[in-house]
Design brief:
By secondary structure, this protein is mostly helical. It is about 75% helix and about 10% strand.
């Protein structure tokens, strides 16, 4: 059995991955709050932004954490198409959950179905990403810990959607984001602790790309997207601010010159 190290770079990758999960959660919650206060095309656009932020944050958290994953006795490579597919899965399932909550009139039903769908999708993203791992040996999973990780994903997704519906103030959103980041990280590491590897030493060249060749540049790019989108959301006026501006402008126009 190969020795697994989930933090080969020390606390850097767990900490950074948690930060990325928190940023994605905070941005997703803020965009959903904006969406629920908007209508028409504006609501759709805010929901798309919320889904992309949540999906990107979750995926980036997973693969930043994977930068610190190593197995003694073997190199590790990543299948590029499967890794990209895991990102698309994260985006699609989070979009389904966010749009269900954003447009459904039955919020309780939407919360249940959206949380279940999104949670299962997040778990699918994680294990699809693990399926992209290439190493000399066989990967095995503890079914109990796998089931626990899926349960955590569903609970975390449901909590995130509930927060999007019920939490409005920036302070509350920040607190919810810290909790969500912890939940997503817990799901990831629970899934990783389910892994065991039986190494089969070989001199053959592994297919795929190394983490630094592919995962790191992609994670940096997606992380930059989160920071830039955060700046855009922070600078965009809220619905209340736009209404106040329009009301003030009408008042000024109604004053006789």
């Amino acid at each position: 059995m190969g020795h697994l190290d989930h933090a080969a770079l020390g606390w850097l990758t767990p900490t950074l991955s948690y930060v990325m999960a928190c940023i994605g959660a905070a941005l997703g919650l803020r965009c959903t709050v904006r969406a629920l206060g908007a209508t028409g095309r504006s609501r759709r656009n805010w929901l798309i932004t919320a889904a992309s932020a949540l999906g990107t944050g979750i995926w980036t958290m997973h693969f930043v954490a994977m930068l610190g994953f190593s197995v003694s006795g073997t190199d590790i490579r990543y299948d590029v198409p499967l890794t990209i597919a895991s990102l698309l899965v994260a985006m699609l399932v989070v979009s389904a959950g966010v749009f269900a909550v954003g447009y459904s009139r039955d919020r309780v039903r939407a919360l249940f179905l959206g949380g279940l769908t999104t949670g299962l999708g997040v778990a699918s993203m994680h294990y699809l990403g693990m399926a992209a791992v290439r190493l000399h040996g066989g990967v095995h999973y503890d079914p109990v810990l796998v089931g626990l990780s899926v349960l955590i994903a569903v609970v975390a997704a449901t909590a995130a959607l509930w927060a999007a519906l019920n939490i409005k103030s920036p302070v509350a959103v920040t607190l919810a984001s810290l909790i969500m980041g912890a939940a997503v990280s817990s799901m990831h590491y629970t899934g990783m602790f389910a892994v065991s590897v039986r190494v089969s030493p070989s001199g053959a060249v592994l297919p795929g790309a190394t983490a630094m060749q592919f995962i790191f540049p992609l994670a940096v790019g997606l992380g930059s997207y989160l920071f830039l989108t955060s700046a855009f959301v922070a600078l965009s006026p809220t619905t209340g601010e736009r209404e106040a501006t329009a009301s003030a402008q009408r008042t000024v126009e109604s004053i006789p010159s």
